[in-house]
Amino acid sequence: MPVRGLIFRLLSLTLVIVGLFVSVSPVQADNPPRTEIVGERTENSKTYDNHDGTRGLDSYIGVIHYKDDYASATELWKDIDTTIVNGRVDKAPYTLCIGYASGLVTIKDKKTGAITTIGLKDIEGEIVKLDNPVEQGNLICFQDVAEDTDIVIEATNTHVRFKRVLKSDNAPLTATFAIYQQGEGITVTPLARDNYYADVKVDSKLEDGLLTETIAKYNVGELCYPVEVDPSIDVRVSASTDDSGPVLYNTGAGAWQTYGTAYVQGIIGFNTVNDYKYGAGMRFLNVTVPQGSTISTAYINLTPYYSNGNVNATICTQLGNSATFSTLADYQARRGTDVGGTNDTYHTANFTYWNNVAAWTANVTVSTPSIVSTIQEAVNNNTWQSGYAMTVFIDDHKDRTAHVAGAVRQWDTYDYLSTYAPLLHVDYTVNNATLNTLRCTGFGKDWLLLNGNVTAYGGPINITYAGFSYGTTLAYGATAVNTYANYTIVPYGYYKYISGLNSQTLYNYNAVAYNGSWGSGGNRWFSTAGASITNSMEWESNIAAVNITKNVYGSYWAMQTFTTNSTAHTLTGVDLWLSRNASPGDITVTLQQTSGGLPYGTVLSTGVIPAQYTGNINPISSNTSARYPIAMSPEVSLSPNTQYCWTVKALMGDNVTNYLQVATANTTYGYGQGYTSTNNGLTWTDASADFLFDLWGHGCLQVDQAQVYNSYKNPGDWLMVFFYRNVYPPYYPVQDSKQYFVYQLVDDTNAVLAQSSCQVWGARPGSLYLSSAMITGLTWSGAYRIRLTNLRDGTVYMEYPLQSSDWKGTDLELLDSWVISMAQQLQAYDNTTYLAAVSGRGTVLNSAGGVIFATGIPLLDTIRPNLFQIVSVTTPPATNIYPQTMRTKFTPVLMLGTDAWATMTSIGNVVGVDGRTVGAAGLFLVLLVVAGWGFQPGHTVAATVLTAPVVVLGLLTGLIDWLVGALILAIALIVFCWKVIFSGG
């Protein structure tokens, strides 16, 4: 090869290598892309970590997230996906099912449970068939179902459109739909628009479940085809009153006019002398920017619809939490003097002036100028809180646009197309720490374990004290704090053990901290437990003073919703403030799930105050409202942060002389609403009051009464025993507790030091075992907590902080006392006998109790056999009777070995016999096998010889008594002699 060609090839190869290197080398960015913080989603917004110490918020008009269970407080918001797959949409606020065979479209609202089914009955009297569907993303198209007519089904974030697409003047103008609706919350609205999205007149009639739509007959050429006609099925309340609502303009005579609350474009600018000073307000929900944050970026994205001329505009923000738009006067009051309002106290003094608004291109997103100053003023105002709704006005109400006809800018709204709705973007830095009062994660009869954390961004926070204020009223009265230096957030924040409390008492508490001044979190409440595990405790309540009473009788019922606090618990009883007039008969109370805030859910539990004697008189006082307990059955587990309700009825009463009176509060109850019904609960009306009540029950999770021992199995090990209760829904009682819950030993940084599966549901003893190797680095009597937690959701847990008195040392007789004490409490809790009295040994665990404690505390039956009724001892009996509980000359650990005896004993405890019987049964099986083979013809002698060593083994190990063994050997000898001597072998 010529040298020149070789050089050329080498240069070419070098260029290729360099090109590859450059193409695959990563581009270095100043900051990594922002990442969404999924846990801070709301129905309408996303929050991002910008990786520069700030956060970003995108707040949308209209929903962008959904839940499968809107009643769940723990389910995270999920992104909506309206792609139609096999005729279905499931990842939306609704479920959509399109029946290709039936032609029916069914929509179910996940929040309210409402259902609408719609089907195309005919087009101008002709039955049509929907076949050969073509799925294209969120659309399904059925082509040419009638002359120049297609059917298109479109799924969007909040509604479904069943559209007739008329492609020419030849298309039929009338269609009839069959509609079935169940429940409230879904609306069906007839609409028609041409190819330019201009409204087309459509006449509609809904009668007897049939919706008829007819387009007015236009002259040829007046309509721009294709024309879309559809019953639009809205699954949510429309965002009309949030988006562009309402558009205002001046009529030129000093009066103001509105296009209404559902105009599909926002407008700014000047049209004519009779309609100018255009403007609109946009209400963004769930703006989760903390009060006092520093705003670094803020703007609104708009989708242009129409642009003409030179336009100027102003932008300001309403102060505080914005309500939805309603009337013209409401808009004027909020926007102020520029539109005829009385004052300017409801919006920011800072305006952003948008001068010489550039020409817009339809459907190409534009951004407003920076609106940092007006947003900053709004979030600095003391009326602002994170999560409030924020209204931003974009308008020319100050008349800054030159009066040139048609100088306007129009942008799309939610009602035009939800994906084109305005978007508010804010980047912010939290300046002040936010204190969060978390749920109580441990409780006993005189103590609470309170939890809190600090939310902040940008580095450590200089907090010197963090703790809790607590007391039986909202005035608290006591404070307990930890001392910190430059406090840095940890996964579970901080906690404080509060002791010396009263049992069965409701305590209010909130998180407090000091970083130059004191701050506090929100209020929570919790009740301490009773004197033993059988005592119920108070949970939710409304115990304000009595205001008035509502009458309950016959078909007139009363109902109160409530929301459980952050700890799951059971319900055993309800206390109501009641009085009666004459004889209303039995008083019945039911606990129900709610649907849409009303008691249309499953009845979970029932309680009755029965009439007790002649005349159907019940024991309720007839002259004053007093507190009456109603025992509820069955005891039912309630999920945390979930809405339920109770109803009360007196079916034998009347409105003349015999009725029940249920007392209401003189203050508003913030966690529910009172309702009344006049038709046996079919429909409900706001009672304009909240009823008084107390709820009582047990914690679904509880850890308490712990003790710690060392040198339990081997020198230097630790055994931790404790009582726990676990009836946590929705897993209990149908799932295996070991799949969901574990016991953990954690330190003050929440590091898990040991873990074991939760063995069974209910109230039981539990344990954690740490070998001597596992406790390396741990401190005896250290600051540790025993936690019962759900592995699938680490926020579901209950824990107990070990106290100095819980560390017992090597005295296992104290363990024996703890076991018997716990068994006594469990007997009462389960209403089952777990103890027995044995002569010479006192109270021990019977077979049922033995199974419970051997399961909860491994090797307890081996290491502490005297706790069990079925055990072996070396002391000979006083008589010739050999009872099951006492046998002589049997030392199983020496005869059989520790492991073999432990296995036999554990098997025995499960089936209710002792370990020796298990071993003897095993030998008997061996004898049967040998005998079954050996006693066949011709093998009798061999079988007899082979059985003898098995029996001798049983005698030597103590598994077979000498008398029984001697009898077996005698029989074998007789059989052998008979066969060999008398029968000839």
Give the gist of this structure.
The chain is α+β, with helices and mostly antiparallel strands. The longest helix has 22 residues, at 3-24.
3D structure, described in words:
- α8 (898-911) crosses α9 (915-934), α9 runs antiparallel to α10 (940-957) and α10 packs antiparallel against α11.
- The chain contains 11 helices and 60 strands.
- The N and C termini lie far apart (102 Å).
- It folds into 7 domains: 78-235, no CATH class; 242-429; 434-527, Immunoglobulin-like; 537-697, Jelly Rolls (Sandwich); 699-810, Immunoglobulin-like (Sandwich), CATH 2.60.40; 826-898, no CATH class; 914-982.
- With 985 residues, it is of the alpha+beta class.
- The longest helix has 22 residues, at 3-24.
- The strands form 13 sheets. A 7-stranded antiparallel beta sheet has the order 6-7-8-9-14-17-16, with no helix packed on it.
Task: Describe the SSE topology.
Layout: H1 3-24, E1 35-36, E2 45-49, E3 55-60, E4 65-66, E5 78-79, E6 88-89, E7 94-98, E8 104-109, E9 115-123, E10 134-136, E11 139-146, E12 149-155, E13 159-166, E14 174-182, E15 187-193, E16 202-207, E17 210-215, E18 227-234, E19 248-250, E20 256-258, E21 265-270, E22 276-287, E23 294-302, E24 304-308, E25 313-317, H2 328-335, E26 352-354, E27 366-367, H3 372-380, E28 388-395, E29 407-412, E30 423-429, E31 434-443, E32 448-455, E33 465-471, E34 478-483, E35 494-498, E36 506-514, E37 518-520, E38 524-527, E39 537-542, E40 546-552, E41 557-563, E42 569-581, E43 587-593, E44 603-609, E45 626-638, E46 643-649, E47 659-665, E48 674-677, E49 685-686, E50 693-697, E51 701-710, E52 718-726, E53 741-746, E54 752-757, E55 762-770, E56 785-790, E57 793-801, E58 807-809, H4 812-830, E59 835-838, E60 842-845, H5 847-856, H6 860-863, H7 892-896, H8 898-911, H9 915-934, H10 940-957, H11 962-982
Helix pairs in contact: 8-9, 9-10, 10-11
